[in-house]
């Protein structure tokens, strides 16, 4: 999060080399938060429950701070299906492990189903941004959001595995047929909570491997580092373009905040 | 985690004031791990998906390290129901938001239900330990494990709330009637994965507030700090007693490892 805010600070010309960015949430170990200009960068830990806690508190914060015209982007890593590793996926729909675009929230012991629809114009704008960044393959596709990294994503290398390589491949093929091109663990509740709050939202995750070819990372440390920078570069470029447009009078909102939720991992 | 391992190091007489404990998992930001003697202390983040990732990797580690006679204890904080804040709850059964002792794991898109049974002898042994620690109220009771901290635990102070104070109180009353005395976010998958791995497991969480009286912490920082120490003190005493018994020949296992999973929060 701090690296991202330092990068954005430099890109926007707001960086002061003499000052360090403090962690605004230093009093808690739930997550870390950094800010430069109108951009917030917040960590969210791993999985739906962890990001949901952060989002409840972030949404309340944005409300009390009277932020308007807010755009929220989750950036992170993911496993790909049928894509070259390093490809960036902008999520069209976040689907569950049965490939349905829904998030089930249990309230007072009863399931409540919520839509995981994301902003299609925002996804398209991000895709356009990627075209300015040269050699960064980027697609708009469905993202599967699971509750578990090992059994939940049909990995064969967890502590338990009750299925075969063939079962795994069949499941990934079904996911591919449903338009899924990457798998991560936070997008569904992120999409659902942003939609409920009328926040424009996008999910931008790089794929670190093709899950049809394996379960573990085989790229070198340097290559993985390069992949992990890609969502940051893309969203950094997007923020810069949006703010430049605003400064030229293309937007009439009175204040603006671009929140970026950054995954530690996925 | 580090504070716990430093405490255990001192308690077991294994601490070397000249050496710092390194984070064994420093190469990842998924979690932190510290070790002293036969005791591991590992963080697990917030929520079921986060602790499940850690447990898959810990269980594989214990297997490859050929550890035997392993006991795993999750220590952390929780919200209480009908208990004086500061009470320590040793989990009898981890139940879901419908008060059922089960954990549903989705595998290849299909739900698989697993038992969340914990070791009753271990729970009883921990309760006995608490009696040696003077003024630390401790009970054995059911723990409700939820997927969400706000709506999932019937809080009224999240970003969204579609129910009334009366609905909340009725839900907490139902939970109480089902034997639930505290609520947290990791115990069900912890119990399920430990049971599948034949690891003896316990959950020891202090209650920071009585949820029937409110949703937010009202105790002072110092009082909360004191509460948060209690699971550590209890489990520290338990580990010391177990290891002393082993050294006196009460146990015949060839090697031993006491893993302690520590919540950042709950």
Automatic annotation (TrEMBL), chains A, B:
Residues 29-239 form the Nucleoside phosphorylase domain. The keyword Transport does not apply. It is an enzyme of class 2 (transferase). Pathway: Pyrimidine metabolism; UMP biosynthesis via salvage pathway; uracil from uridine (phosphorylase route): step 1/1. Substrate binds at residues 153, 155. One of its GO terms (cellular component) is cytosol. It catalyses: uridine + phosphate = alpha-D-ribose 1-phosphate + uracil. Keywords: Glycosyltransferase, Transferase. One of its GO terms (biological process) is nucleotide catabolic process. Residues 247-266 are annotated as: Disordered. Belongs to the PNP/UDP phosphorylase family. Catalyzes the reversible phosphorylytic cleavage of uridine to uracil and ribose-1-phosphate which can then be utilized as carbon and energy sources or in the rescue of pyrimidine bases for nucleotide synthesis. Shows broad substrate specificity and can also accept deoxyuridine and other analogous compounds. This is Uridine phosphorylase. It comes from Clupea harengus (Atlantic herring).
